[in-house]
Amino acid sequence: MFKLPKNLFRPLRPVFRPTRLYSSVPLTAETYKDKVSINDKFKKLNDSDIEFFKGILKDESGLITGDDCLGYNEDWMRKYRGQSQLVLKPRTTEQVSMILKYCNANNLPVVPQGGNTGLVGGSNPIFDEIIISVANLNNIRSFDPVSGIFKCDAGVILETADNYLADNGYIFPLDLGAKGSCHVGGVVATNAGGLRLLRYGSLHGTVLGLEAVLPDGTIYNSMNSLRKDNTGFDLKQLFIGSEGSIGIITGVSILCPIRSSSVNVALLGVSSYEMVQKVFIESKKELGEILSAFEFMDLNSQKLVGQYLKLDHPLEDEYPFYVLIETSGSNKDHDDEKLETFLANQMEAELVNDGIIAQDESQLRNLWSWRESIPEASTMNGGVYKYDVSLPLDDLYSLVEASSERLRGEGLVDFEDGSKPVVEAIGYGHLGDGNLHLNVCVREYSKSVESVLEPFIYQWIQEHKGSISAEHGLGFQKKNYVGYTKNDIEIKLMKEIKHHYDPHGIMNPYKYITA
Amino acid sequence: MFKLPKNLFRPLRPVFRPTRLYSSVPLTAETYKDKVSINDKFKKLNDSDIEFFKGILKDESGLITGDDCLGYNEDWMRKYRGQSQLVLKPRTTEQVSMILKYCNANNLPVVPQGGNTGLVGGSNPIFDEIIISVANLNNIRSFDPVSGIFKCDAGVILETADNYLADNGYIFPLDLGAKGSCHVGGVVATNAGGLRLLRYGSLHGTVLGLEAVLPDGTIYNSMNSLRKDNTGFDLKQLFIGSEGSIGIITGVSILCPIRSSSVNVALLGVSSYEMVQKVFIESKKELGEILSAFEFMDLNSQKLVGQYLKLDHPLEDEYPFYVLIETSGSNKDHDDEKLETFLANQMEAELVNDGIIAQDESQLRNLWSWRESIPEASTMNGGVYKYDVSLPLDDLYSLVEASSERLRGEGLVDFEDGSKPVVEAIGYGHLGDGNLHLNVCVREYSKSVESVLEPFIYQWIQEHKGSISAEHGLGFQKKNYVGYTKNDIEIKLMKEIKHHYDPHGIMNPYKYITA
After folding, report:
1. A281 touches chain B (CB under 8 A)
2. pLDDT digit string (tens) for A90-121?
3. pLDDT of residue A320
């Protein structure tokens, strides 16, 4: 088998800390007591329930109670904390089915959980919902090296899947910073986007089949599906991006592309956002089929990364914007020539002011780290309000400027000396997908900052015909704001689907869509 | 604006004849009287219904009655004929909404129709259902040359859309033989696959938003969606491939890629199906990101095309199998070098016996015609039983051999002299997608031939874990065979969705899935 280097693509990853104890994270139910209250129709968990679950799981290590649940109750941003007293970690799809059937019959609410790396509070309970973790469903089921079809359990870690595929000359069609912790099932359940979407498209196109357990215990299984199968409604699509609201994904079948043998990365300094857009159009024309990432970052995001990494920026002078371009292809000489010609053309046309191309893998990792470290650098002063939005490209960066201006107008911002609650609003993201990450970096979470940001940001997005969630999902954070992106009929139809599959509302309650 | 040549890709297209009168096509209700009977709970169309529709449409030309409905009652294969006495051709989405609302309230069954180029009898009535044609919804709505997002009415002809995109340097991410007749809405409603799926993926990944009218008249609209939008269930996915069973698609928003400036085509002669598979694996590795088609054809299919085109085959000697490879890229020199090196390697490894590369556009069209003319060549002796299946690659061609053997065992086959009802079972298709087209070319349609083929072929596919419909859909032809591909739970869940959206069952009855 033709082998390609592993881990060629992503350099640094955020360090996730799901099991570490953070006593200071306030309870979600307290922080948001004006927005959410417990649904009294749910049954309270009791000892006989726990005995029943013990009987299903057999293995004692699959059942966690009391204070040991903390790592599962909290999210990695330290923003949300639930109060679950029970975590179940089934080892088979049949166990998941028995658990859900019981919970559904007994009105016990549940929160499905994968790698717990979500960014909108979707994978943690609000009150005392039972957490069902798929971490113990972690087998790779099969791989066909002719077709590229890969099948695995939902709890397989994304990086494990990608390394396995690398050994076979293939690549997982999705990548993101949390790959060392997030699960394959979780990225499908949240329809994650990430760094390879520009090249390989969305999971709605690449996922071929799913195994999922419905609230009543029914096991839906389309894992046998081939690349093309036009025999009826494509039901699996409903689960992609459903955030645990209508069932628990337990298995995934996905089409994987051949791993490119040649990867190049360039980092460019650009004088304005208008120029960034022009460089993007030119890159689609000139780099065409080898373009695999087009990421942009603003100057403040790079300053924070510099502080976080304690390193000097690869480009000597400062520029208002930076662009990271990655190419992936099958012929290194051809790719080098395309990229070098492209960059020379951009410099000559004065669209790009300065640039650097990685000459080896270490430099490649280094350049990526200036994009990939932004999420961690954003939180290093205390915390971050994250907004992950889609906007028409023309308007994309204006949202960062509008947010910064509004925060400054309220006297809340100080980048340097630490006297104000907000460090700065920074912008970066997958320009190739029209996807902006607006991070408002703060020294502490506070209601006063949040009320300046929301609903202002959502209203701004609505006025500019964007989406309030490009890839992170709705979860708890954006549940009440879906109306800024979806119209009344869409919301009505979504509520009907929720009610159709989860009539008792036990699945991931208080989030996403409620019927 | 950077311009690229139009119509570079497809040479010959089947000649569609939807409005020509074929008095000899028997009524579907007669041919299949053992399989289907009229549902008496439906109301019979009367004069006051017609007056109501006239009031909605205003324009007289949008309402066709009596014998003038013939072209809409028949399919282009001359296999199915319905008995509708009314065709409605609304000009606005609101008119579609008013029509459906009335039909739903009055229990009047309807058949949505696009270009009427389907291959499974899905777009023609069985009895006297009202035909709702979207042919008059034919405006291009918008195109954004930065993002590549194209929006149009459902009735825009695929070729019209692709030519418009070509003028803007872009390409529609789907192509098929019927592009001169089929509609954009129709390809989405049937989840068509076609010739570009290998490169650009399925419509589930490229369609960004839809406008569709539900049976009760509700207008679902997600046309504003951007490349990424993770705010709730992706409801539009249910309509992709729903074959008019839960609503009528009236508008489509789709992400289009940049049109490649360089296109190459090669035709290869290969000594066995095993070698064909090996050449495919090597092509994925060596041609990687520029591979845009990998089609295979067997010898008999090429013999029929030779008779049909009255031409000598481009390759001098005969081979058991032929492979057509297309590459599309942004740099002609690079692409030429990749393709020539690849072919030299295949010849040296003795995987390929002979081959030819098109040197200009005329040769390129000529090579494609040996693949594209197969559907027409298949019918030239009278008719064709078409099976469009997905199978694991190993087993793909064995189905053709098994079918031919079975027909020969019954003494039904004669390729040359015309004394037997069957000419031959031939095989070709999109090998890159695991998609085989098995065409059983006949001199006339007959129950005796059909009963030898069905359910034999469906059982064979089930045993080999394939799909009985890779891209053509279920329609009327395969309605009763869905159980050979989908399991009981999948079918139950599909029936629930059908009932959820179409509780009275007025949408495209007797086909697809019935609740």
Report:
1. yes
2. 999 999 999 999 999 999 999 999 999 999 99
3. 98
Average pLDDT for A133-152: 95
A150 with A161: CB under 8 angstroms? yes
HEC-encoded secondary structure of A220-239: EECCCCCCCCCCCCCCHHHH
CA distances from A138 to A131, A157, A183 (A): 17, 8, 9
CB atoms A233 and B513 under 8 Å = yes
The C-alpha atoms of residue B334 and residue B324 are separated, in whole angstroms, by 20
In CATH, the architecture of A28-133 is 2-Layer Sandwich (3.30)
A219 touches chain B (CB under 8 A): yes
> pLDDT tens digit string along A277-288?
999 999 999 999
Residue B23: which pLDDT band, with cuts at 50, 70 and 90? low
Are A337 and B334 a contacting pair at CB < 8 A?
yes
The CA distance from A202 to the nearest CA of chain B, in Å, is 6
Q: Do the chains contact at B233 and A337, CB–CB below 8 Å? A: no
For residue A2, the model assigns a pLDDT of 29
On the question of a common fold for A262-374 and A381-484, the answer reads yes
Mutation for testing the B interface, residue in A233, A285, A465 having most B CBs under 10 Å: A233
Per DSSP, the residues of B26-72 read PPHHHHTTTT----TTSPPP-HHHHHHHHHHH-SGGGEEEGGGGHHH
Q: Residue A319, SS3?
A: coil
Contact at CB, B330 and A232, closer than 8 angstroms: no
Pick the CATH number of B262-374 from 3.30.70.2190, 3.30.750.24, 2.40.370.10, 3.40.50.720: 3.30.70.2190
Quick one: pLDDT at residue B1? 26
The alpha-carbon gap from B338 to the nearest alpha carbon of chain A, in Å, equals 8
CB contact under 8 A, B497 and A201: no
**Taking all residues of chain B, what is their mean pLDDT, rounded to a whole number?**
93
Torsion-angle region of B94 (φ positive above 0: left; ψ -120 to 50: alpha; else: beta):
alpha
- For residue A488, pLDDT over 80 is answered with yes
- Of the candidates A234, A158, A166, A152, the one whose C-alpha atom is nearest the C-alpha of residue A190 is A158
* CATH code for the domain defined by B381-484: 3.30.70.2740
Q: Is the peptide bond before B455 cis (omega within 30 degrees of 0)?
A: yes
- At residue B196 the predicted structure's pLDDT band, cuts being 50, 70 and 90, is confident
Which CATH architecture does the domain made up of B140-255 adopt? 2-Layer Sandwich (3.30)
Nearest chain A residue to B497, by CA: A233
Residues in A closer than 8 angstroms to B144, CB to CB, are 392
- Asked if the ipTM is above 0.90, the reply is yes
CA dist., res. B88 & res. B96, Å (int): 9
Distance from CA of B232 to the nearest CA of A (A): 7
Query: What are the chain A neighbours of B146 within 8 Å (beta carbons)?
Result: 277, 280-281, 393-394
Q: How far is B413 from chain A (nearest CA, A)?
A: 30
The whole-number pLDDT of residue B60 equals 84
Closest residue of B to A513, CA-based? B232
